[in-house]
């Protein structure tokens, strides 16, 4: 299914390759680079590229491209999902999925890839099981290893692979039995220029960390399960029970896992915790302009808001900006013309003067920005990630 | 990249690995091996330390073993003789008490990829299939497929296949899935693994125990099973119901496809399924992973083609957010275009209008075309928006708007008046060929309603000399002639000038011919011109530009969850066709075997069948570069494979001949001057299998005959014959031109 995997960094170096069947030459990536060149922006590379002999399915994660080489017809979602799982595993093992981390742990990376895929087919991808096969690197362990000469590879087979419930290993024992649930909800919204909501929706997940002995059978009930649309479950949840009683009943895996993910899409339930206002003006007869953004918390929410980041993409003609934030810090990246971020604030008022240098260019800048003010709805897309415990879960063992 | 100084590194590592002190110290030994691996991954050639690495494999340290095996799998094809030495250790490890070691050794042994290894791995694999640890069985089952690949695809070991079929009953779910994968690969020639009733039912019962990858694949395999009765069918659907709500989009899509195909005779069930997966699909469309999002959007479009209103209530889901990559935005615009209805048209158009002024020209143009598409149903609102866009006086916007107008007045004649009012002034902002053609066409066809039409066309005629696109000139000729019929007084002079230019000065033949044609037509009289140019226009109801009618679900069900929705059917057909031809054989037995109603697959197979005889024919490689020395060496080392004479009169023009040969990918190595006696030429060509054809042409002055001698690097008569026939054709053609 998956013939080979290439990891490519932003500057176009192939820094890792792994072949599961025959060796595919690196030159196959030229087609990928070609597409990348055509796309102008790295983020715009199409995920599926066809070449005379192969298909290249790629994902872009944390400034790295994971390019897989496929030789026969496959379900594209399957491969994309798997590549994300690979990236997730790296993230899980090394704390970050970056080029440096992968290069530092290249041996573990190869071990992982070897276990995750055999002959091109996914094998062990559950993080619990992998961690028993190959222990993740920690500072303590590397010190211990260097003293005792022991390895980071489990000497025994993971028991989970032999138990009747594939996601849980047998004979788990803890002295403190505890279970934690994190309810994380993200609001995706498009706000139009006058500040009213065009579209808003909550994407929620419940992540669990379960440290319970034996084979616990848990059930979790919600105050108002009707709010949840499109729930998708971890395989451990008994689907029939949810359908009939709206109760989550399951034997959990050991350790960290994602229990469910869901959406809340009815508009009136989604309250956006911040407001955004903006104003753009131009000085007559000069190539400069002024651009203000105000962001503040909505009063009725009753929760403090932290960690706000504002990112503004400016058009390419903008040469420079002078920024004066009322709170927090800022940077201007002249390459991508992106202006992040502001941190920890109750209310932000940001002023910036921008200029595009050459007078001749002015006309196009003017028209572009003017058009944007007049017509563009959804000019601000606010994406807040606000972790707070929303519904108290009720657990009974 | 071959690094300079890799020899030094190899030498140093070799020393370290041989050092008995290092070997005694486990940590230092392992570090040295890790360095070898690190260099290997950076592209250095580390095959020099193969011997030392083989020795290092005899250890109890499992990490060290893993590293050494990784190394061996990479370099074994380069050093097959040395790799055989390692097999002994590997075989010993295959009977280690630790199942991890057994599995590891077996997997490495199967991945050695070198000739002659089959005889050594057969027994360990058979033992592995009966191992008590499931980990080893998993490896062994896939090892069967690898062994089969090493054998070359010739014979299928019946006993092994039976063993694998019986392992489908294994306790371990991954062993079961691996069996399917392995059988599929081994039986590729025979159409893959066979799913009969007991196997299908067994798999269905095991489904909940599998991991998500296994579920997705088993669902795919189940497509081959055809339930005997309606009752059985609905039992299966009930069993699989929960997979439509799985957390993995891959499983959801595979389940959807299975449902659609199994229920092909029950359209209401199909619709029901599509309603059920609406939620998961929409969730995938707003997933964090943009690649997933993209693939899901492609499938949404596919569904919309059969159920146009399916996602209409969720139209806001498909509004673009500014940070999304282009490929997603373009898909979303297409989707928006298809789910417009009376209630949401206002909001959708408002949103699309926002996109029209996007910084990216491509995206802006796609949005304008989308508005044009919606205009077929909601003409007035769209034409108004498009007209407003013209006011921005942006080049890339204006040209697309004018093109949209051109398509629109043809399909919706009622909007002609509005379009004609919007057009004046556009000509200043159009630079590209497509836009100019559209504008000129509009001015020609509806010129009588646009007051300044003749003067705009006159401007174009003034600048016709500097016009670079012949298509624009052609369009200009037609348009001006049309306008001349309705407004003769204003156009006569301009038309005269244009015709004069086209006939006297124009260098492009097509334009000149068109000019001459119109000139002669005018000579035939004005009535004749009217009869030809203003005959009834094509009827919009012909449906040339109209959307294809709703297509039944069954027409695309077999393409669902494949790459077809990503590429679009037409493009996919061409891609897979050329890939299939290159691979010399139909590679997609799985799609073909469960094709139900999809017309694509049978068509494709037919095309393939026609292509196959061709693929055995001669294919000359376009740029085979052979140096003169190399040619000479090869020429003297080979015997003449074929010699013949062909008729030839007069002298040879080397340039003509060289050019003609170039066209058929035959390169000229050396050639005598024109008129030399005797005249000689040496040619070379290479076909796609790497076989060289070297040719000598010899023309003696006294007889009118060209002597051709061909030498071939690999003796194969059929390609030789086709090469000679190619050469003969060229020589014949050149000869004919002269005589």
Write the layout of secondary structure elements.
The complex is a heterodimer of chains A (397) and B (739).
Chain A (H helix, E strand, L loop, with lengths): L1 E8 L4 E6 L9 H11 L8 E3 L4 E7 L2 E7 L5 H19 L4 H6 L1 H11 E2 L2 E2 L4 H7 L5 H10 L29 E14 L5 E15 L6 E4 L7 E5 L5 H7 L1 E4 L4 E10 L9 E9 L5 E10 L22 E6 L22 E8 L6 H14 L4 E8 L6 E3 L1
Antiparallel strand pairs in A: 1-2, 1-5, 3-4, 4-5, 6-7, 8-9, 8-18, 9-13, 10-12, 10-19, 11-13, 14-15, 15-17, 16-17
Chain B lengths: L5 H13 L1 H5 L1 H16 L8 H7 L5 H14 L4 H14 L5 H12 L7 H12 L4 H18 L6 H10 L5 H14 L10 H10 L5 H11 L7 H11 L8 H14 L4 H10 L1 H8 L4 H17 L19 H13 L6 H12 L4 H14 L4 H12 L4 H17 L4 H7 L10 H13 L7 H10 L7 H17 L1 H17 L4 H15 L2 H8 L20 H4 L6 H4 L1 H15 L5 H5 L6 H16 L12 H10 L2 E8 L6 H10 L3 E5 L7 E8 L5 E8 L5 E8 L4 H22 L1
Antiparallel strand pairs in B: 1-5, 2-3, 3-4, 4-5
Subcellular location (chain B): Golgi apparatus, trans-Golgi network membrane
GO biological process, one term (chain B): intracellular protein transport
Keywords (chain B): Golgi apparatus, Membrane, Protein transport, Transport
Question: If you average the pLDDT of chain B, what whole number results?
Answer: 80
Overall strand count of chain B: 5
CATH topology of the largest domain in chain A: Beta-Lactamase
C-alpha termini separation of chain A? 42 Å
Structural class of the helices, strands and pairings of chain B?
Answer: mainly alpha
**Low-confidence segments of chain B:** 581-616
CATH topology name of one domain in chain B: Leucine-rich Repeat Variant
Mean pLDDT of chain A: 70
How much of the sequence lies in strands of chain A comes to: 25-35%
Radius of gyration of chain A: 25 Å
CATH architecture of the largest domain in chain A: 2-Layer Sandwich
Number of domains of chain A: 3
Oligomer: heterodimer
**Largest interface here, residues on each chain?**
A-B, 94 and 100 residues
| Portion in beta strands of chain B | 5-15%
* Highest-level CATH class of the largest domain in chain A: Alpha Beta
How far apart are the first and last residues' alpha carbons of chain B, in Å? 56 Å
Strand order of the largest sheet of chain B: 1-5-4-3-2
Q: Counting H and I runs of at least 4 residues, what is the number of helices of chain A?
A: 8
Strand order of the largest sheet of chain A: 2-1-5-4-3
- Helix tally of chain B? 38
Keywords (chain A): Cytoplasmic vesicle, Golgi apparatus, Membrane, Protein transport, Transport
Subcellular location (chain A): Cytoplasmic vesicle membrane; Golgi apparatus
Protein name (chain A): Adaptor related protein complex 3 subunit mu 1
Membrane topology (chain A): Peripheral membrane protein
């Amino acid at each position: 299914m998956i013939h080979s995997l290439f990891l490519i960094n932003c500057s176009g170096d192939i820094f890792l390759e792994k072949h599961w069947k025959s060796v595919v030459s690196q030159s196959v990536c030229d087609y990928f680079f070609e597409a990348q060149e055509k796309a102008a922006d790295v983020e715009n590379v199409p995920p599926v590229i066809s070449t005379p002999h192969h298909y290249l399915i790629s994902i872009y994660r944390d400034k790295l491209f994971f390019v897989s080489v496929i030789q026969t017809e496959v379900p594209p979602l399957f491969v994309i999902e798997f590549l994300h799982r690979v990236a997730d595993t790296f993230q899980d093992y090394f704390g970050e999925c970056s080029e440096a981390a992968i290069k530092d742990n290249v041996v573990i990376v190869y071990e992982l890839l070897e276990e995750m895929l055999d002959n091109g087919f996914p094998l062990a991808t559950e993080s619990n099981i992998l961690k028993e096969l190959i222990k993740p690197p920690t500072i303590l362990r590397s010190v211990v290893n260097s003293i005792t000469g022991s390895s980071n590879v489990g000497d025994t087979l993971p028991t989970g692979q032999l138990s009747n419930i594939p996601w849980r290993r047998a004979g788990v024992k803890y002295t403190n039995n505890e279970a934690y649930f994190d309810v994380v909800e993200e609001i995706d919204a498009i706000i139009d220029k006058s500040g009213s909501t065009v579209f808003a929706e909550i994407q929620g997940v419940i992540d669990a960390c379960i440290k319970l002995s034996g084979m616990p059978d848990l059930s979790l009930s919600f105050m108002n399960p009707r709010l949840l649309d499109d729930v998708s479950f971890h395989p451990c949840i008994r689907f029939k029970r949810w359908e009939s009683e709206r109760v989550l009943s399951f034997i959990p895996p050991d350790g960290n896992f994602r229990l469910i993910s869901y959406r809340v899409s009815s508009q009136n339930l989604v309250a956006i915790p911040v407001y955004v206002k903006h104003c753009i003006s131009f000085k007559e007869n000069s190539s400069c302009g002024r651009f203000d953004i105000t962001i503040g918390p909505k009063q009725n929410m009753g929760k403090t808001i932290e960690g706000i980041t504002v990112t503004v993409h400016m058009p390419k003609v903008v040469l420079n900006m002078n920024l004066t934030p009322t709170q927090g810090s800022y940077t201007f990246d002249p390459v991508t013309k992106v202006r992040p971020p502001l941190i920890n604030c109750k209310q932000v008022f940001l002023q910036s003067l921008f200029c595009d240098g050459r007078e001749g260019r002015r006309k196009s800048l003017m028209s572009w920005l003017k058009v944007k003010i007049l017509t563009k709805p959804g000019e601000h897309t606010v994406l807040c990630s606000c972790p707070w415990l929303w519904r108290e879960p009720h657990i009974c063992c | 990249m071959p690094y300079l100084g890799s020899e030094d590194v190899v030498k140093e590592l070799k020393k370290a690995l041989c050092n008995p002190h290092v070997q005694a110290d486990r940590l230092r030994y392992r570090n040295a091996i890790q360095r070898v691996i690190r260099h290997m991954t950076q592209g250095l050639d580390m095959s020099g330390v193969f011997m030392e690495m083989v020795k290092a494999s005899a250890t109890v340290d499992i990490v060290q073993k893993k590293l050494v095996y990784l190394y061996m799998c990479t370099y074994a094809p380069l050093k097959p003789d040395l790799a055989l030495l390692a097999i002994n250790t590997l075989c010993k490890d295959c009977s280690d008490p630790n199942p991890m070691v057994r599995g590891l050794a077996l997997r490495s042994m199967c991945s050695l990829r070198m000739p002659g290894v089959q005889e050594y791995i057969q027994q360990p694999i058979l033992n592995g299939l009966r191992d008590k640890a499931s980990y080893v069985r998993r490896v062994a089952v896939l090892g069967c497929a690898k062994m089969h690949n090493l054998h070359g695809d010739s014979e299928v070991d019946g006993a092994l296949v039976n063993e694998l079929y019986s392992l489908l009953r294994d306790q371990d779910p991954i062993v079961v899935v691996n069996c399917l994968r392995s059988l599929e690969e081994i039986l590729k020639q025979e159409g893959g693994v066979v799913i009969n009733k007991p196997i299908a039912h067994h798999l269905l019962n095991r489904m909940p125990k599998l991991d998500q990858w296994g579920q997705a694949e088993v669902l795919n395999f189940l497509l081959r099973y055809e339930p005997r009765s309606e009752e059985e069918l609905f039992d299966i659907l009930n069993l699989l119901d929960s997979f439509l709500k799985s957390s993995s989009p891959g499983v959801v899509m595979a389940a959807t496809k299975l449902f659609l195909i199994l229920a092909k005779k029950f359209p209401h069930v199909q619709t029901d399924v599509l309603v059920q997966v609406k939620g998961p699909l929409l969730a995938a469309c707003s997933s964090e992973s943009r690649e997933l999002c993209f693939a899901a959007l492609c499938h949404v479009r596919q569904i919309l083609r059969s159920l146009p209103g399916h996602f209409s209530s969720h139209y806001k889901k498909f509004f673009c957010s500014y940070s999304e990559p282009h490929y997603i935005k373009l898909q979303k615009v297409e989707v928006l275009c298809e789910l417009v209805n009376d209630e949401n048209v206002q909001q959708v158009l408002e949103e699309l209008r926002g996109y029209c002024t996007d910084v990216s020209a491509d995206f802006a143009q796609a949005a304008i075309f989308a508005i044009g598409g919606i205009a077929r149903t909601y003409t007035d609102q769209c034409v108004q928006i498009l007209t407003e866009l013209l006011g921005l006086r942006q080049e890339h916007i204006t040209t697309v708007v004018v093109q949209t107008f051109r398509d629109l007045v043809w399909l919706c004649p009622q909007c002609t008046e509005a379009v004609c009012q919007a057009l004046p002034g556009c000509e200043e902002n159009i630079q590209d060929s497509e836009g100019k053609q559209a504008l000129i066409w509009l001015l020609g066809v509806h010129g009588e309603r646009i007051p300044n039409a003749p003067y705009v066309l006159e401007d174009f005629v003034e600048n016709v000399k500097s016009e670079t696109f012949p298509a624009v000139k052609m369009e200009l000729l037609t348009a001006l002639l049309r306008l001349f019929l309705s407004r003769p007084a204003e156009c006569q002079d301009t038309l005269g000038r244009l015709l004069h230019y086209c006939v006297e000065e124009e260098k492009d033949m097509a334009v000149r011919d068109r000019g001459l044609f119109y000139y002669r037509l005018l000579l035939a009289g004005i009535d004749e011109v009217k009869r030809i140019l203003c005959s009834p226009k094509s009827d919009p109801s012909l449906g040339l530009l109209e959307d294809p009618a709703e297509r039944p679900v069954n027409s695309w069900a077999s393409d669902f969850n494949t790459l077809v929705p990503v590429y679009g059917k037409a493009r996919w057909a061409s891609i897979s066709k050329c890939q299939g031809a290159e691979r010399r054989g139909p590679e997609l037995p799985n799609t073909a075997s469960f094709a139900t109603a999809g017309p694509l697959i049978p068509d494709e197979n037919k095309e393939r069948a026609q292509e196959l005889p061709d693929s055995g024919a001669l294919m000359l490689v376009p740029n085979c570069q052979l140096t003169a020395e190399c040619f000479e060496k090869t020429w003297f080392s080979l015997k003449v494979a074929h010699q013949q004479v062909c008729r030839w009169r007069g002298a040879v023009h080397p340039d003509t001949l060289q050019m003609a040969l170039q066209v058929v990918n035959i390169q000229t190595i050396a050639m005598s001057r024109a008129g030399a006696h005797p005249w000689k030429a040496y040619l070379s060509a290479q076909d796609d299998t790497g076989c060289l054809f070297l040719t000598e042409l010899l023309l003696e002055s006294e007889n009118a005959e060209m002597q051709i001698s061909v030498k071939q690097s690999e003796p194969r008569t059929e390609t030789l014959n086709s090469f000679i026939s190619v050469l003969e054709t060229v020589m014949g053609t050149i000869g004919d031109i002269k005589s």
